[in-house]
Design goal:
seven-stranded mixed sheet; 35% helix; six-stranded mixed sheet; alpha/beta; Metallo-beta-lactamase, Chain A; binds zinc ion
């Protein structure tokens, strides 16, 4: 079964990898694309939800002057100024989702910021420890060696870890905002009219949450369920050690939502067919697991690198470099761990 795209404009923009128009996607809900620089995803949707005379956002987009302008001018065209933003609910801590939060707080310090407790903890860790935010890796762990990466490629992995601590300062997270709402599974956002509840969907990050408006069956799915791409599982600092199991359980969890649900993802385009898409994602991971089992039989080198080398990658394993190589290894490690296989480095990121 295929998913049903709900917006020709959004689908075309995604196919052409250009910014779509700001679009009304529900009663008092708008999708605002915020550009991501030099990234094949091109944009993150920030969703604006009317809240009395103000507005609440779900995700804020990547940081930067151009991004800030894109978001604020879209809000302005909808009749909302910076001071009208009551709060921002964040699906997960990645930069393309929280990047603009400091700029929004600067303009409106009274605004609340809502996020799952586990992702707040992850951010606190980035702020206080030298953990790289792009890779989520503790620099004391020698990833390259423990994953069995050949010596001539060590620098590709190590160069990623040099930027550690940098992200936290880019995000100006010298301190957390005053008004933080710590979300748990089932928490309601403080919005007048129309309840929006958070569902904890660990996997892509350990604190990933989606938001559900039951009145009209809207699902703000963040990166948990996307229409055409598979969210990376295994990159989160909170661990490859349970990310795939969590992710598969989180896909089950959204299976309780009605098939009529309109899915409003952070990337791509809005669609209906949540259950079919969730089944495709589950099938994808099971295929991956089967590939890994086959590769294990085929080679005596059971390092993460060697296993990854034998898997199918859309651009080919040899074309994976730097961050993409790292992401592929992390994803392989998460799948191997799910199968109960040794992935090296002891309990990598086991916190
Ligand atoms: Zn994202």
């Amino acid at each position: 079964m295929a998913i049903e795209a709900l917006s020709p404009g959004q689908s075309t923009a995604w196919k052409d990898r250009v910014l779509p128009e700001v679009e009304s996607v529900g009663e008092g809900v708008w999708a605002i694309p915020v550009p991501i620089p030099d990234n094949p995803l091109v944009y993150t949707y920030s969703y604006a939800i009317a809240d009395g005379s103000g507005v609440v956002l779900i995700d804020a987009g990547w940081d930067g002057a151009e991004q800030h302008r894109a978001l604020t001018s879209a809000l302005d065209s909808l009749g909302f100024g910076a001071r009208d933003i009551r709060g921002v609910a964040i699906t997960h801590y990645h930069r393309d989702h929280i990047g603009l939060v400091p700029a929004l707080l600067n303009a409106n310090p009274d605004m609340w910021v809502a996020m799952h407790g586990e992702d707040i903890r992850a951010l606190e860790r980035f702020r206080t420890e030298a953990v790289d935010m792009g890779t989520g890796v503790d620099p004391t762990v020698d990833i390259a060696r423990s994953y069995g990466v050949p010596r001539e490629r060590w620098t590709e992995i190590e160069s990623l870890l040099l930027g550690r601590g940098k992200m936290a300062s880019v995000l100006q997270l010298d301190r957390m905002p005053e008004n933080v709402l710590v979300l748990d599974d089932g928490s309601a956002l403080p919005i007048d009219g129309g309840t929006i509840r958070a569902l904890w969907t660990p996997g892509h990050t350990y604190g990933h949450s989606v938001f559900v408006r039951d009145d009209d069956d809207l699902l703000f799915s963040g990166d948990h369920v996307l229409p055409t791409i598979t969210p990376n599982i295994g990159l989160d600092s909170a661990a490859i050690t349970h990310s795939l199991g969590d992710y598969l359980r989180s896909l089950d969890k959204i299976g309780t939502l009605t098939p009529e649900t309109s899915v409003l993802p952070a990337h791509g385009f809005r669609f209906r067919g949540l259950h079919d898409r969730a089944r495709e994602l589950v099938a994808h991971h099971h295929e991956r697991l089967a590939e890994i089992r086959a590769r294990m039989e085929e080679t005596g080198d059971h390092s993460v690198y060697s296993i990854a080398q034998g898997l199918h990658w859309s651009r080919g394993f040899d074309e994976l470099h730097h961050f993409n190589l790292f992401a592929a290894l992390a994803e392989t490690a998460a799948h191997m761990h799910y199968l109960g296989l040794e992935v090296g480095a002891g309990a990598l990121g086991a916190k």
